[in-house]
Each structure stands twice: as C-alpha cells, then as structure tokens.
Design goal:
This protein has about 550 residues and is mostly beta strands. It has four domains: about 10-125, Elongation Factor Tu (Ef-tu), domain 3 (Beta Barrel); about 135-215, no CATH class; about 225-330, Alpha-Beta Plaits; about 395-415 and about 455-540, no CATH class. The protein is built from four helices and 24 strands. It has helices spanning about 60-70, 255-275, 325-330, 420-425; strands spanning about 10, 15, 20-30, 40-50, 75-80, 85-90, 100-110, 115-125, 135-150, 150-165, 190-195, 205-210, 225-235, 240-250, 280-290, 295-305, 345, 370, 395-410, 410-415, 455-460, 465-475, 495-505, 510-525. The strands form seven sheets. A four-stranded antiparallel sheet has the order 2-1-5-6. A four-stranded antiparallel sheet has the order 3-4-8-7, with helices on one face. A hairpin with a 2-residue loop joins strand 9 (about 135-150) and strand 10. The N and C termini lie far apart (about 110 Å). The relative contact order is 0.08. The model is unreliable at about 1-5 and about 535-540 (pLDDT under 50).
Length: about 550
Amino acid sequence: MPGLPATGTLEYNGVAFTGAHHVTTELEPIYDDSGRLIVTHRITINVDAILAEDGSLDSTLEELRFRLEQPRRPLIFINKGFGDDLIVNRGRVQDIRNGPKPNILSWEPVGDDRAAEIKWSVTTEIPPCRVGRFRGVSFINWSASWSMSSEGTTRRLGGFIEIASPRLIGGDTADAYRDFFSPPLLAGFDRTQEWTTSLDKSRVNFDITDVEIPSPNPYAEDMTSMSGGHRASFLRGKTTHGIDLIIAPRARLSGSEAWNVFLTIAAQRLSWAVRKGKAPIVMALEVDEDFFGRPQRFRLAYRFVTTITNFVSESGLWRPLGTSWERWTDSLRDNALSNRGDAGLMDIASDDGGEKQTLCTSPAAKNPNNNQNPRGPLSTGRAKVLKNETPAPDKSWLDYKSAVVPMRDRPVIRQSKLQGADDTTPGSYNSDVQGSVPSTGPQYGDSSSGSTADTIQVSGVSRYAVRLIGQATRVGHKIPRPRLQNYGSQEPIETASVFLEREDGNWFGVTIYKARWAIDYIVSESPGDVMIPVDQSDVV
C-alpha cells in the first residue's frame, strides 16, 4: 500500500501506515482515584494518512477500514520520535485496559475509488514502568466512615479494586480479587457486604459495613443471631425459672446445632443451682422448628425451692454464658462473614470468552457463570440429650404442704319447754283485708318473739381430736405416709385416715410422685399451745 515516504513503523492489526504524513503522540499519566499514585500511562497516537493502490480499492479499503476498527489488536510504533519502541499486544507488553482502542475520525475518498485520506487515532494504556505487570490488581482505593450511637459503633468501608487486562481470552475478572481487600473482622461486630462488578469487568466496587452487636453476651459459635433470656419468679418459697431463646445457625447448618447451643446455655444455669446446693428439676420443654427459616425457638421451664434472700444468687441470673466474640468471629470468618459468604458465588472470566456478542456474531444465550459452593445436605452434629438426674432424698421435694386442724367435741343436751298457744301466734289476722293471712309464729331473728328460750345443759368434759391434712410432690422418690408424733405434750392416737399416692408421669428421665392425705387422731385432754408441723419443702 504505497504512500508518502515516512521514517519508522506504525502498524495496527496488520495495517501499516506507510502513507502517513502526519503523526502526533500524546502521553497522559493516569492517577488513581486518590490522586496520589500514577497507575498507567495512557498513550494516544493520531495519524493523518493516505491509503492508495493501483486499480479499484473498494474491497481493499473496506477490509482496511474493518481491521482499523477492531480493539485489542497488536500495535507497533517504532522510530517515530517517541523514544522507546512501543509494541503492544505482541510480545511482553500488553494493554491493561482491554485496548488498544482505535477510532476512525474521518474517511475521505481521494481520486474516486482509488485512494482515501483518513484521520485515525488509537489509545493504549500500559504500566508506567519499564518492568511492569499486565495482569492482576492495578490499585485499590477505599474510604472509611464511622457513626456512633448509644447502641454502639458502625464502621463503613467503601471503595473498589481495579485490575489490568480484564476479560481477555485466558484472563480474569475483578471479582476474582475480592480477597485483596479483606479487612479483619471486629470482635463483637456483625458484617454486611455489597460487591458490584463494573460492566467491563475491570473493577469491583465494595461496601462493607460492620455494626456493633448490642449484646451483653457474645453469640455462640456458628450462630448468626441469638435473642432471648432467663426469667425467674418467686412465689411462696418456690422458684420457677424459664429460659427462652431464638437462635439462628449460619447457612448450611441444621437447626439441631441451635438445639445444642440452647442446651449448653440451659445446662450452665442448671449446674449453677446445683453448685448452690439445689436440685433443679426440668418441668417443661418447647421446641419450635422453622421449616424454611434459620431461627429456631426453644423454651425450658424448671424449678427448685429457695428463699427470697437467696432468690437471685441461686438463680444464676446475669452470669456470663461462657461464649466469646473471638471464637464466634473465627467460626464465621470463612463462611457467613467472608467476602463471598456461605454461597461462595464467584464471577468466572470464561463466561465471556473474551468477546462480546454483537450484531456481527451469531446469537447465543449468555448466562453468568457463577461458581457456587454446593448446598448438599444440612450439616448436623450429634444432638445433646436433656435429662433430669434423680436428686438425693433430702433434695427431692418439689412441694410439701401440711396443716393441723384441731377439733373439740363437747357433750351438751338441749332442753325445750312446752309452749302455749299465744307463744306461737304473736301476729294478728285481719279478715277484712283481702289476702291477709295469720302469722304462723315468730320469724327467724325476730327478737320480739314471746317464745321461751331452750335450756343448754353440759353433760360432761370436752373431748379433743386433731386432723392432719396435706399434699406433696417429690422427684424420683416415693412419698412416705406422714404421722403426727405428738400433739402438744400428748401422743395422739390415730382413729381414721386417707392417704392417696400416684405417679404424675416421667419428667425427662425421673418419675414424679404426688400424694394427698387426711389422718384423724384423738387425745385425752386439751393440748394447750400447738406448733405448726414443719413443711418438708423447707429443708430443700
């Protein structure tokens, strides 16, 4: 392709500009977004040239024009007064921005169809050093902001990772370099992340927010959230406790893992009562499984006997749970709180094949080729077992109520005198008033009655008796039939009794016994002052 004589070589995509009569070159240092670092040199070559050849050039010029429009093709620029030879995409030096990127500014036919005068330019970006990389991270920029409230601190990190030569055949995408910005997890903070890949795949933008968890206790390992608490009530010497928890395990873990965490916390509170000399007994358990969500709900009720003085100290309220923010963070570092989360989605460069679909290519469906961690079956550990232990006999009473009912039978005789007619008819009868009826005698409580009072005569000394009544609930041991050993200074004699005992069921591995009784005794004389029998539950 003859043209005006020129020195050196300018060639792009196999098209040599031998007819170039005017060539200018611009070099622009490109700074990162912080303005502190030169990351590339952007070189733009502008060419004025005449393309000519003997004979018709229609087909030839069309071919040349097509080749000069294609990006990412080899560029050769030698001995044009620019200094070092510039050879891009052929050999070691590669364009790091999916270039070179050509642009035809004008195309003017000359001599009918035999020549064309063109204005053409091409831009390429290369590292700003003699020995540089043409793959991988170009630079990373980010900013940080903090917000504080009474609930805690929030830290936000926003920025991007930019790479060289994205999406070339055999290349990669900026999404593959997320781990180049992986700030350490803060103990006691939860993390949310947003990652966005640019259209040209050269940049992945990130927004990482760490929010302090307003919890007095660290979460258990592998649990993404926990809520609930310990409720204790005191009534008539009996303490009832309830532990309610909502626990969400991380993705790919079974709810049974949350069950084990719940039992661990419950066991700590139960063992604290045991250390205080109590015998806590589990009475009820509720488990609410969410088929399609992570949070699992648990409720446990237990009881033991205590005094109001020791109510709080023996309950275990406000004691640490034995969890650690450091262990929690480590358990989620490579999954839920990692840069790719539990799913592990990843953009793969081979999805593009280095080329975009255009009207010049055959139509084909494009789908993001995201690598994903396989879901598989839920990971389940061995579930712990909740079981009551049979307490020692003196610690086995859940409830014991008894009462002594004193009774006295005094022999007396009621004597009544015969009454006259007037005594039984104190009212009058008026036959002139319709509906009037004669009185049939004195009304109840009528102090104006004219009847004579009965005579009450004591016929002997009083006889004394006592009734022992009560009920009890006991864990793992039968309830013995009670006996009244003394009544004042006297030994009572049993005359009749009813004692009913039954099994109230099995409470998590131990049998619960309940009993009721009513026992009658007689004594020979008045007992004087009598002490109330000791409630067996007071010794627990």
